[in-house]
What we know:
Layout: E1 4-7, E2 10-13, H1 14-52, H2 54-61, H3 65-83, H4 89-106, H5 110-113, H6 116-139, H7 147-168, H8 171-200
Helix pairs in contact: 1-2, 1-4, 3-4, 6-8, 7-8
Amino acid sequence: MNDFERVGARSIPMGRADMAVDAGLRSFMLGVYNKLALGLVISGALAFAVGNYPPLTALVFGTPLRWVVMFSPLVILLVSSFAMKNPSPTGAGMVYWSIVTLMGIGLGSIFLMYTDTSIAKTFLITAASFGFLSLWGYTTKKDLSGMGSFLIMGLFGLILASIVNIFMKSGPLDLAISAIGVLIFAGLIAFDTQRLKYSYY
């Protein structure tokens, strides 16, 4: 019996059970990253359209709609975090795709400020950094759960500082927000990847 693990009323070989869990975990994580990649493609397409098609640019950034696009993702996240304690797949999907759409529209502004080359370089660096941090969060044996509350509080502080700096227009504060933001989001990527892995189990 020492070569078998009891699962319910059945006994299956330990090695085969581990392989089944690993295959299930891989499938689960691939599903998450596929959805993330699709959201990124949609956001990128919307950003490109809004930033390069003058009627859309004028509609979004030449009217009060820009404030809706700017603050709606934050409002949706805050409201959903309090109102949806146990969200259904449909509800979670609606929140996700709403944020993807609004973020994509809002990111159209980067095409008005930066060249296509600099945007492409930044995207590649960000994608590589995300991949590395997510892989570390997936493979590390260190428990990152203790970082969660600290990082979330840091994120709220970062959002408030960003809103204040919209009106202050302080260069040094903008630089500090960017630097702290990199550290906070780096930690959140690793933390959330490990949390996804644990949520599967």
